[in-house]
Amino acid sequence: MRRLFPLPTEPSVPPAAPDREWGLDELAEAYAYPERPQSVSGAYLRANMVSSLDGAAHHDGRSKPLSSETDMRIFGMLRGLADAVVVGAETVRQEGYRPARAREAFAERRAALGQPPAPAIAVVSASLELDFAAPLFTEPLVPTVVITGAQAAEDRVEAAKAAGARVVRAGSGPSGRVDVAAVPAALAELGHTRLLTEGGPRLLAQFVTAGVLDELCLAVAPLMVAGDAARIANGPLAAEPEQFALASVLEDAGFLFTRYRRIYP
């Protein structure tokens, strides 16, 4: 892996960064959360997504075929830094989501920040049509959070609670939909301020149009898949395009690992 941007500014450092394997600590420093989020929610929401060269967010319904060993290392490292991983219900079903696991490499770092051994998984679902007998609910180190709307069926709410999940209401409108703009603040109230969303594309689009996405970590895979797969953000059109600034670019085996941070006025 080598850093393409930003390049070192010290005169003694060669302009071409060496291609070498990065350790988890070095990656963690490169992807560290800011100390003070600028958003009014008090939380910092970053997204981690992968895309093919031709813009596909998945191949045959799953993102794993677009991934690589280094991409999976960064995937695990980003989880290791987060308080909570926010994901849509459809992605939970499609990808067979399991609880995040504790990693010894991050134990000291997480303890120093007052974090539990592993991040919580926070599932956004208006209908609560989820399998509460799945390991995501029966085997987590940290209770799974279910974020739903005001009109969620009470029997499904009780089923979620009986499975050990923490149920959070985000949105009070009669539509029953989850107000994604309220999700970061709702999780911040639980003490989860370092947020990571892994999509899917529909949920990411909702975060973008709600104006609550602070950072995008996008891996561009050197692959072409064609087909009709969704883009990484696939949903309602934003009223105005959100502007982001390039923060860093890493490269490994043709994959580009980019970070873009939202520009606040």
Specify the biggest β-sheet.
10 strands, mixed
Helical proportion?
A: 10-25%
Tell me, what's the shape? globular
Q: Tally of extended strands?
A: 10
Here the CATH topology equals Dihydrofolate Reductase, subunit A
Mean pLDDT: 91
CATH architecture: 3-Layer(aba) Sandwich
Strand order, main sheet: write it out.
Answer: 1-9-10-8-2-7-3-4-5-6
Order of SSEs: EHEHEHHEHEHEHEHEEE
Brief digest:
By secondary structure, the protein is an alpha/beta fold. Helices cover 25% and strands 22% of the residues.
Features:
single chain, DHFR-like_dom_sf, Riboflavin_Biosynth_HTPR, alpha/beta, 8 helices, NADP, Dihydrofolate Reductase, subunit A, 265 residues, 22% strand, 10 strands, globular
Description:
- It holds the Pfam family RibD_C.
- This is Pyrimidine reductase family protein.
- GO terms for molecular function: 5-amino-6-(5-phosphoribosylamino)uracil reductase activity.
- With 265 residues, the chain is α/β, with parallel strands linked by helices.
- It has one domain: 3-Layer(aba) Sandwich (Dihydrofolate Reductase, subunit A).
- It has eight helices and ten strands.
- A ten-stranded mixed sheet has the order 1-9-10-8-2-7-3-4-5-6, with helices on both faces.
- It is globular, with a radius of gyration of 18 Å.
- The model has no long low-confidence stretch (mean pLDDT 91).
